[in-house]
Design goal:
By secondary structure, this protein is α/β, with parallel strands linked by helices. The chain is 25% helix and 14% strand. The chain is built from five helices and six strands. Strands 2-1-6-5-4-3 form a six-stranded mixed sheet. Helix 1 (91-108) runs parallel beside helix 5 (193-209) and helix 4 crosses helix 5 (193-209). The longest helix has 18 residues, at 91-108. The protein is globular and about 40 Å long. The chain starts with a strand and ends in a 22-residue tail after the last helix.
């Protein structure tokens, strides 16, 4: 079973960290569960940052993910769409992705952000201020946050936080299929985690730039730069 967390505001995420073993979380204001024929296990990874869709990894009973608040791990440069405390992308890949997401926001109004981390090496709570997400009474809910974390190679590496303003364009089934296509340990082993992240982000950009701004299926790989808003 795959869990997709849909958030109307991230502020709750930073005041409630619960035990994973008891499968309870107050991270977000609303939670939806999606059936996934490829997995029969249920789990919630209640973490520190902007988490998380589910993975196939269920930690042991005593495991807890403690809240982290490390503003010192934030980049000194402001306005970056891609932050890496774990270098899954090369500098060139990260720059290109940042440009792609800047163009996407300019042209469509959708904000897509990427955090590459290896828990607990993450800015955690501090990320909400840097990206100005999850503030109380914030009306801009057209955002997607991708948290990339391998969790020791024991689960899906793609974890999505989706604002309510995105759910009609990209419904829950899209996120299930996207993480199932590019986020599995098998895909990462065969293709590399950089391609996992790049292909997932390009699929999102392609869908949000489509004429209908709507997808339930993951687009084919190899989108042209022009179709992604880049020259």
């Amino acid at each position: 079973m795959l869990l997709v967390v849909t958030i109307a505001g991230l502020s709750d995420a930073f005041s409630n960290v619960q035990s994973i073993y008891h499968e309870k979380t107050q991270l977000f204001t609303s939670t939806k569960t999606i059936e996934n024929g490829f997995s029969s296990r249920r789990n919630i990874l209640a973490s520190i940052s902007l988490l998380v869709t589910a993975t196939a990894y269920v930690p042991p009973a005593e495991a807890r993910l403690e809240a982290v608040n490390r503003p010192d791990l934030l980049p000194k440069q402001t306005g970056l769409n891609v932050i890496q405390t774990e270098k899954f992308l090369t500098a060139g890949q990260a720059r290109r992705m940042d440009d792609l997401l800047t163009a996407l926001e300019r042209d469509t109004g959708y904000r897509v952000r990427v955090l590459c981390q290896s828990y607990p090496n993450t800015p955690g709570l501090a990320i909400r201020d840097y990206w100005d997400l999850g503030k109380e009474d914030q009306k801009d809910d057209k955002y997607i946050v991708l948290v990339v974390d391998q969790f020791g190679g024991r689960g899906n590496v793609l974890n999505f936080n989706v604002g309510d303003g995105v759910k009609f364009a990209l419904p829950n089934v899209f996120w299930t299929r996207l993480s199932g296509k590019y986020g599995t340990t098998f895909y990462v082993k065969e293709n590399g985690i950089d391609l996992s992240v790049i292909n997932a982000i390009e699929a999102i950009a392609s869908c949000l730039r489509s004429e209908d701004q709507y997808c339930v299926n993951v687009p084919a790989e190899g989108q042209s730069l022009r179709s992604l808003g880049l020259n």
